[in-house]
Structure formats: C-alpha cells, structure tokens
C-alpha cells in the first residue's frame, strides 16, 4: 500500500473527522512517520531521485523530504476532515486574498479567467479560496 492510500484510508479519515488543521497535521505526521519506518524502500527511491538530480542525499535530507511529503498530505487531507464552514474559516484566517481578489475582479470584468498554478503544495486550497472571493 502506498503512503497516499494509507493516509487516505477510511480508518484515518474517520480519525480526523471534525478536527482542526493542527490536529489533522499532527495525526497525519504521526501516521506518516510510522508508515515510513515500516516501508524503508521509499528511502531508497528518494535517495535515487536526489542522486539523479545531483542533490545531497544524506540521511537528514531524506528525512526532510519524507517529512515534507507527509506535510503535503496533511494539506491534501484536511479539507476532508470537517464541514465547508470549517474549511472556509481556516482559509479566511490563514490566506490573505485581498490583493488577488482585487486583481481577479478587475481582470474578470469583461472576460472569464483561467487560473493556472504550479503544484508546489497547498493546491487543494486554490479552488475554495477563489470561491470565497465572491467572483461571479
């Protein structure tokens, strides 16, 4: 089973139900670290990828990569943990959309907008954030 499938299993999803982001983050980190300890072959894959990219591949660097992969899953899974109102509250308290909303509203006066974003993390928040801006 992959880390992704494990962290999105019905058992873990039921454990995060109704929890805030910090609680989801901690639970996903705990579960992800435990999974990584049991699935050491993932370290080899990360090491091979770092070497292929000509990057440092120390044990600490591999730990850092694994940690950040798990954090990515916490962001990805968080929207499944609560209600739309809880997600909206999180977005409104953590993401400042003031400047982006003004730019998008101005740009959309005469034409539709196509938004493209690289996948650097947190992409799960893009659509609900744009929806919270009140654009028509």
Cα distance, first to last residue?
42 Å
Shape, per Cα inertia axes: globular
Q: What is the N-to-C succession of helices and strands?
A: HHHHHHHH
Radius of gyration: 18 Å
Strand content: under 5%
Helix- and strand-based class? Answer: mainly alpha
* Helix percentage: 55-70%
Based on DSSP secondary structure assignment, what is the total number of beta strands?
0
Overall pLDDT metric? 86
Care to describe what's here?
The chain is mainly alpha-helical. The protein has helices at residues 3-7, 10-16, 21-38, 41-52, 59-77, 84-94, 98-107, 126-132. The longest helix has 19 residues, at 59-77. The chain is globular and about 55 Å long. The protein starts with a helix and ends with a helix.
Topology:
Layout: H1 3-7, H2 10-16, H3 21-38, H4 41-52, H5 59-77, H6 84-94, H7 98-107, H8 126-132
Helix pairs in contact: 3-5
Task: Give a brief outline of the structure.
With 136 residues, the protein is mainly alpha-helical.
């Amino acid at each position: 089973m992959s880390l992704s499938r494990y962290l999105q299993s019905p058992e873990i999803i039921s454990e995060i139900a109704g929890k805030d982001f910090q609680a989801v983050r901690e639970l996903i980190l705990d579960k992800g670290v435990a999974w990584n300890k049991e699935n050491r072959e993932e370290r080899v894959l990360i090491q091979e990828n770092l070497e292929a990219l000509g990057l440092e591949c120390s044990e600490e660097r591999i730990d850092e990569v694994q940690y950040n992969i798990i954090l990515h899953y916490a962001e990805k899974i968080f929207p499944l943990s609560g209600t739309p109102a809880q997600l909206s509250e999180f977005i409104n308290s953590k993401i400042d959309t003031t400047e982006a909303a003004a730019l998008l509203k101005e740009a959309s006066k005469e034409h539709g907008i196509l938004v493209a974003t690289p996948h650097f993390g947190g992409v799960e928040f893009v659509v609900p954030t744009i929806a919270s801006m009140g654009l028509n």
